[in-house]
Amino acid sequence: MNCAASTKKRNSRTIATKATHLIRAIKGTRDILPPESGVWNHVERVAREVFASYNYGEIRTPIFEETALFARGVGEDTDIVGKEMYTFEDRDGSSLTLRPENTASVIRAFIEHRLDQRPGLQKLFYMGPMFRRERPQKGRYRQFSQIGAELIGTESPTADAEVIEMVLEILSRSGLADFHLVLNSVGCKECRPKFMEALRARLAESGAKLCADCQRRSTTNPLRVLDCKIPEDQPVIETLPSILDYLCEGCRTHFATVRQSLDERGVTYEVRPRLVRGLDYYTRTTFEVVHGSLGAQNSVLGGGRYDGLAEALGSKTRSPGIGFSIGEDRLVMSVESAHPALLKDAVDVYIAPMGDAALRHSVLLGRELRRGGLRVEIAFEGKLKRVLETANKLNARFALIVGDNEMAAGVYALKDMTSGEQQMVKREDLEQHIYGKYGTTTNAS
After folding, report:
1. For residues 109, 157, 297 and 128, what is the CA-based torsion angle, rounded to 10 degrees?
2. Of 83, 169, 354, 359, whose CA is between 20 and 30 Å from 303?
3. DSSP three-state, residue 306
4. Is 100 exposed, middle or buried (0-12, 13-18, 19+ CB in 10 A)?
5. If we measure between CA atoms, which residue out of 166, 142, 137, 216 comes closest to residue 56?
């Protein structure tokens, strides 16, 4: 047997062996199944409604970009770029990366398509998957989804407050309660160097007590030490200097105005001087929203101002901006916990045809009811008792029994699956009866 034939035979055996192996989702990824997917749709629908009310338009960027975009935008010394990105070499030798976040991509698109030439502020939102090779844990995955927005073209602190107000509106309308807003200013290129100098000096004295990552960050990017989540490091981090003591007059005034605007809007918050976020492009305002149901890693969303990001990515015009990203996986998990009823994907009408002729009639009847906005399921086979049992398991609101007599008379037996009450209802009154009973339906809500 020649070498080529031998190799082909080995490959065939390998494929045959692999064919018997049960293929599962890759670690850190997952399938989102109904009824949970319905909660995702609920959250995304709410977000789209709120974005529209604030005049934001949707942008859809590629899932992969040049690696340099994130190295320059996010920061080479961040954990995201240094340890977490999915980077690969394309066939032409270029380095590409699955997007670990989307702000850099949005700003790249803003520059490339000269959106600064459009009138007014550029207000963009996005929804979609991101990728980071983190350790999977509760609410954190290697493929995860974000809902985010960017407001580009203003340095106004009042704009910062409006962006924060908008994201809190999304959380509230989604059904999340008892969340907590934390706020800080990380200064600007004028005042941050003095703070960094003081931070390095203090870390030189106490940095040896910190974890290995923080000891490395102490020399490469000391600001990242403040973002450490390891509990054992927190006593040392609490003794480090506060950036609020080093803000220049411009940053101090900006932060005071943000807080004043939030106060006027009735937004409650906590100022947390060591909130810096994990990305290098932030300047001045930074914020997070945390929620107790998520455990130690309890952040639902984060955001902040990035006045120099467009210039760092090659823009010839100054384009200050502010934005945020919601961890949709974590938000959905919190909403499910607070509102388990959202997981009950109820059918409005379960049609039970009695016989072949009734099935043909039910198909047409079901089409009409669906066009009226009702959520309809049709039993294609089975005896009435078994069909009603299935309707009950599907949380159907009504079972509609269709037989020869019903078809002839145009009057159907409609059973309320909650009360057990059954009555005869004319075809033309079906929708009105169901809407009158429940007000709205699964599809119409």
Report:
1. -20
2. 83
3. coil
4. buried
5. 166
Beta strands 398-402 and 411-416 are antiparallel
User: pLDDT below 70 — which residues of the chain?
Assistant: 1-19, 77, 278-279, 293-297, 437-445
Exposure b/e, 220-231, CB count within 10 A at least 16 = b: ebbbbbbbbeee
Contact 323, 282 (CB under 8 A): no
Helices and strands in the chain, H and E counts: 16, 16
Query: Tokens representing 369?
Result: 């009811």
Tokens 């105005």 label which residue? 257
Question: 436 is written with which tokens?
Answer: 């009158």
Catalogue all structural domains in the chain, each as residue range(s) with its CATH number: 36-191+247-340 (3.30.930.10), 346-438 (3.40.50.800)
CA distance 29 to 108: 27
Contact 117, 128 (CB under 8 A): no
pLDDT score recorded for residue 5:
56
Position 442 scores a pLDDT of 44
Cα–Cα dist 427/409, whole Å: 9
Tokens of 302: 């984060």
Q: Which residue has the tokens 């990105």?
A: 85
Give the model's pLDDT for residue 441. 43
CA distances to 307, 342, 434 from 442, in Å: 44, 10, 12
- Rounded to 5 degrees, φ, ψ at 215 are -65, -40
User: Is 185 in contact with 286 (CB distance < 8 Å)?
Assistant: yes
Strand runs (DSSP E) across 90-156, as ranges?
Answer: 95-98, 122-131, 143-152
- Reduced to 3 states (helix: H, G, I; strand: E, B; else coil), residue 235 is helix
What's residue 278's pLDDT? 62
pTM of the model: 0.84
144 with 32: CB under 8 angstroms? Answer: no
